[in-house]
Amino acid sequence: MRISSMTTAEVDAISELANECGFHLEMTLELERKFAHIWVARVNSDSVKPDAFLLAWQAADEMDIIALGTAANARRLGLARALVGELLQFAVNNAMDRILLEVRNSNAAAIHLYQSLGFHTGRIREAYYSDPTEDGIEMSLIIDALGCNNPMSDSQYVEVRK
To answer: Which candidate in 102, 128, 129, 134 is catalytic?
Structure first.
């Protein structure tokens, strides 16, 4: 497995993968944004085409996961977990306090992944997603000064977000 930052040579492949995963992203624009960070993962280190990607936006001391997608034939191989791990390491190295995301209510695999990494559920955002219309679940991971995750309880998170 190999993880690296996305390059301009990978824009078309990641755009295609993002579309296959249901994301409507302009990867060329994302690559140009100073606050956007994009990592790609390959099952086989020698592979030309990436098998997964993670797009996150940095705002002050927070990271927001915008999209995380894995090719259908590369799922359940640990790529998404490794990409989130890469993001977490970046967040610790850059003194970030929190990682935020929204996930479709029906995406049980992603919710399980995030919970296994220490993310906690926040509020439900009714009809947040379209095509199809579906609720979104806010999740967050608080990073303490030692670089370890120390997530708030669900009720603490909801209080902070009010």
So the answer is: 102
